[in-house]
Amino acid sequence: MTDSFLELFNSPTYGTLTLSEVREKVASFMAENKDANYRVIIGVDSQMKNHGEEADFVGAIIVHRLGGGGVYFWSREKRIKKYVLRTRIYEEATCALELAHKFLDESHRNGLWGYDFEVHVDIGNVGETRVLISEVVGMVRASGFKVKTKPDSFAASKVADRYT
Predict the structure, then answer these.
(1) CB of 110 closer than 8 Å to CB of 139
(2) Residue 16's CB: how many other CB atoms inside 10 A?
């Protein structure tokens, strides 16, 4: 993963932002209603393009104010590499974990606390990825995060998928 994947994000609301600016927007969004409960969710999805010669990885950071809307930010990286499904799913999960760690490390240093945190992976009980569930879920849990799979993994399967 290159630095641009971790550092440059797009937002339908705010335009292009650095990860530091994303954290500022997240803090500002949470400050609008300090009594609300929040979830911060990270998800990554990918899509093979150009006859399987290129992979398009999209990471999403979503802030959900329970019962009161949310905001999201996304980043893209194109990789010139052939992937088999298993490798691509592991790469998605690894990218999500790297993004989660980077977001949390900087957020906690800057005083952004008080939310539930989840990592969403684009795998489920239906389809080819079902054989990877225990491995990928175990990998994310072993990294210390709550994990969601399809159909509950909307950060990966809906938001990030929208931009692949």
Answers:
(1) no
(2) 11
